[in-house]
Structures are given as structure tokens and as C-alpha cells.
Amino acid sequence: MEQQGHEAGVLPVLRALLGFLIAAAAIVYATDLFSRLGIAIYTEQYLAVVLGASLALVFLKREEHTLERRLNLLVAALGLGGGLYLAVQYPYLVEHQLDMPAQALVLSAMFFVVVLEGLRRVVGLTLVLVVLAFLGYALVGHHLSGPLQTRAVGLDRLVVYLGIDTNGMLGLTLGVAATIVIGFVLFGQLLLKSGGADFFNDLAMSMMGRSRGGSGKIATVGSALFGSISGVVVSNIVATGVITIRMMKQGGFRPHTAAAIETVASTGGQIMPPVMGAVAFLMAEFLQISYAEVVLAALIPAVLYYVALFIQVDLEAAKEQIAKVSPELIPPGREVFGNGWIFIVPFAAIIAALFFYNMRPEAAALLGALGALIVGVVRGYKGKKMSLRDVWDSLCETGQSIVDIVMISAAAGFIIGILNITGLGFGLTYFLVQLGEGNLFLLLAISAVVCIVLGMGMPTVGVYLLLAVLVAPSLIQVGIEPIAAHLFIFYMGMMSMITPPIAIGAFFAASIAQADPMKTAFTAMRLGWTAYIVPFLFVLTPPLLMIGGPGEIALAVVSALLGVWCISVGFVGYLNHRQGIAMRALFIFSGVLLILPDMGGLSLALPAKAAGLLIMLVVLGLGYYRSKCVLVIK
């Protein structure tokens, strides 16, 4: 018992030190400290350190049984020692990779096993089985025929390639996670410790608290702001939902509706520029375009998503006669902004660094983190300033919170390596294109289902990394704009958070709200319906991604906004009064015509939009006439 107590006291210290090591290594790398000192290192050496420390963090958990505890300590030591050894020996190993020295084979095999076990512990068995399925296919795929036939690769050659080559475990996915993502996680941690979360919550309260359904709108704004930074839907739901869900229930929203609003708002934070849960920077790296292009392309779809949610929250509040937030709970807007306007500075620093000074994303994130640190130490929020302990905790928690993403990124590296060395990547793309049989809509529908299934239960970055490798190439191959293809798979992958049967985001929110999980998930699907439809729209209507002339973009945006409003009214069934089935159907039909993509040229698109607008006006006129008749009768 005494030994267990001693270990229980040591483990938190070790975890804090390892978290600090990861954050400190990221800072050193982002500031180019080694090159400034005249020391040349491979990026892969830095990645090996981050991976080794992350593996140790995964296995340094308190266990009740002595054998389990000792095994965990052993594997943690293997992971950390292997990472440090790989960092030191990497120049030699990569130079002699083709000779397959014994140490390269043993080290690569160890990493493959330990990373998969670490992956199982942080996200479950699903992704592990996916990696193992790809490994098994790589070993037997050359015996098959057709588009999915692979090159023959020996197991020893494959293992060394996955562990040492830059197209494997130490490749693009882990590189982005260990540089860009860590930088933004550090920025988020410092922003939260400095009082930024309290400021955003108060800002949402002061902006939306006085309108009908104010508690639902506060949840929407607050979760969107926090979710864009957090990068993990479930973390966002847990962090903000404990406040917003209770507030919505007290305001009159039914428990499952409150949970669904929080789920959809938190999920949407991942698709909201400028940060997009760090996926914006990953997408820019994959597509070899500027970060600014990704943000501009993602802007209109994100606006449509939140417009639909706001409309439905507002109409739901009117339909259920939900009261406004109690005035004494709403802080004065002038006071909130007066106390917290300084929090704009870190965001402005990041945007200026990226857009105007063309700094690397990890350097821009570090600049934003420095801004958040200065704001927190010098001013804080409502007089509460950051302490040295807060700074230390931010660094430690940054390293600890990145572990899940590091495991997923390393596993994604295994999949990428297998696709590259066996030629399966090209075959898979060709197979999906053939499956669509030249029918673009069919290919998109198949890809959407694949994205939702593969994305279930994974953090935002993991969803995108996996789908960018497996699905996006097939969409690009048939002529879809690359940015549209990547945003399509990202949106569909994110919808796994609210789509039954997994719907992990909805289930977490339901547990907080003490609501029925499946009822919450289906309500979330209704509230977040745009995320299922809009990806098809922007693939078929590029102006929604800011691609095209000003007139085309304006027409696409206005008609999409009107269509979203009409369909949302139809779904809720309320506009000044409850709508009957016929009126709801007409609203939905007019909305569908308004958002109908240009599948056959403007000669078909414009008449459809005009007809939709006409039906909308007729339905509104009928509704106005009916309300007047009701008043006269009364």
C-alpha cells in the first residue's frame, strides 16, 4: 500500500514533466532555436522525441494491480527510450534504411506495436482494426487482381519503411500534429487560463441573452468560439456544456433539445474559420495552398451552418414559448467588452502573422500564445491575472492533451506508408471512381457514407487526416476542386459526432443533460441538417467556396441563405404561429428549389431558384392572410 501511494504521488509529477517536455520541444522547434545556434537537426528527430514522450504519457496511468502497473511502466519506458534513441540515431538509420539494419527492424516493430496499443487506449479499437486491415491487405494484396492489386512487399521491408521512412510514421500527419496543432493547443490553454473562456461566455451572454431563446443562442455563440480553438468536439461539449446545457434547461428548453443544441454548436466550432480546430492548417499543407485560401473557402459554408442553427433555436424558442434569460444574469455589454477587449490582441497577432507576414503556422500560433500570456499576466479578466502556476499548468496540459492526436497521427502515418509502398493508394482511388460509374452524385453519396462511418468517435484532426488520405483523392480524380473535395470529407467526417448509432458528441451532451441519447442524436441531426447538405452544394456550386465572379458568388450566397431559412422553418414548423403539414412541406420545397445546385447550367438553376422564391413569397402571403383572419375572428 505504501508503495502504491508513493507511485500515485510520482505519476502526476512524471506526467507533468513529460507534458512540459512536449510543449517545450514544440516551442524550441517553432522558434528555430537549433538553427539559430548553428545546429542542424532533422525534423524527424524532433518528431521522435514528441512521439516517445506521448507514448510514455499514454501508459503512465495508475493501475490497481501490481502486474498491470509494472507492465505499463515498462511499455512507457520502451516508448520514451525508443523515441529518444530514434532521435539520436535517426541520421544513421535513414541513411542505411534500405540495408535494413537489425536495430531499424527491431525499433520499427516496437513502435508499430506500442503505437497501436496506445491508439487503442486513447480512441478505442476501431482505428486499430483499420490499420491492421491495411497491413493485412498489404501482405496479401499482390495475390489479387483488378484495381486493388498491390505490389509485393516483404514484411521486414514494410515494417522498416513504416517506422523510419518520412512517408510513414514520421511523415506529414505526425509532423503537422507535432508542430502546428501543438502550437494552437498551447495558444488555447494560455487563452483559457488568462480568462478568455470567461470573456467569451460573458460576451455571448451580453449579445444574445435578451432575445427569445437567448440561452440557446448563448450556447451556440459560446460553443462556436471555444470549439474553434479546442479542436476536440467532446472536450468542447464537456467544457462548455456543463454551463450552457443547465442554462438552457432552466430557460425552458427540453433536456434532449438543450443537449442537441450544444452538440451541434460544438461540432460546428470545428468547421468555423479561422482556426477550424487546427484543420485549416492541415488542409493548407495537404493542398499546398495558402492558409488564407482555406479560410475564405470555408467561410460561407460555416455561416450557412450557424444561420440554420440560429434560425431553428429562435423558432423553437418561439414555438415552445421559452422565456428570455433573466435580466440580472446578463452582464452589461459595455462592461464585458471593457474588461475583455484585450483578448482580441492574441487573435489579431495570429491573423496578422499568417496573412500579412506569411509566417509559418506554428510560429504564428506561438506568437498568439505569447500574446495570450502577456494579456493574462498583465491584465487578465475582471482583475484575475495569470500566476506562474497557471503558466506551468498550461505548458504541462498542452503536452498531455495532445497525446490522442499524436497517436492518431502516427497511425495515419502507418496507413499513408502502406498506401504509398504498395501502390494501394492509387488503386483505392481508381476503385472508388469506378464504383461511382461516372455518376458524380453517386460517388459523393458513397464517399459521404464512408466518411461518416470512418469518422465515428475520433477527434477532429484524426477524422480529417484519415479521410484526406483515403477518400479525398478519388473525389479530386473525377474533377472536383481539391479544396471542395477536402472540405466535403471534413464536413462529412465531422457529422459522425451527431449521427447515430455512435454519435459520441450527442451521447456526451445527453449524459450532461440527463436526456435520452438517441433522441438527442436525432434532434442534433435535424438542427445540424445543413452539414449533410451543404457539402454537396459547394462541390456542385463552387461560388459557395468563393470560387467565381462576384455576381455568381452573391447569387449563390443569397439563394442559399433564403433556402436555409425556408427549410429550417419547415423543419421546426413555426413562423409567428404553428404551421400545418402542407405549409411546412411548401416551405421545405421552396427551400430545396432555392438551394438546388447548378447541375445542368444556369439555364436550369435560375428558373429553379426563381420558382423557389415565388413559392416562398406565396406561402408567406398565405401565412400573413391567415394571421389577419385569426385576429379579425378574435
TrEMBL record:
Listed PANTHER family: BLL3936 PROTEIN (PTHR43849)
Membrane topology type: Multi-pass membrane protein
Cellular component terms per the entry's GO annotation: plasma membrane
Job description of the protein: Part of the tripartite ATP-independent periplasmic (TRAP) transport system.
Chain segments annotated as transmembrane: 12-31, 37-59, 71-88, 100-116, 123-140, 169-192, 218-245, 294-315, 336-357, 363-381, 402-432, 438-456, 486-508, 529-547, 553-574, 581-600, 606-625
Entry-linked InterPro entries: DctM, TRAP_DctM-Dct_fused
Record domain TRAP C4-dicarboxylate transport system permease DctM subunit: where: 112-547
NCBIfam families hit by this protein: TRAP_fused
Main subcellular localisation: membrane
A UniProt-annotated Pfam family: DctM
Keyword entries, A-Z: Cell inner membrane, Cell membrane, Membrane, Transmembrane, Transmembrane helix, Transport
Keyword Disulfide bond listed: no
Protein name: C4-dicarboxylate ABC transporter permease
Molecular function (Gene Ontology), one example: transmembrane transporter activity
Subcellular locations according to the entry: Cell inner membrane
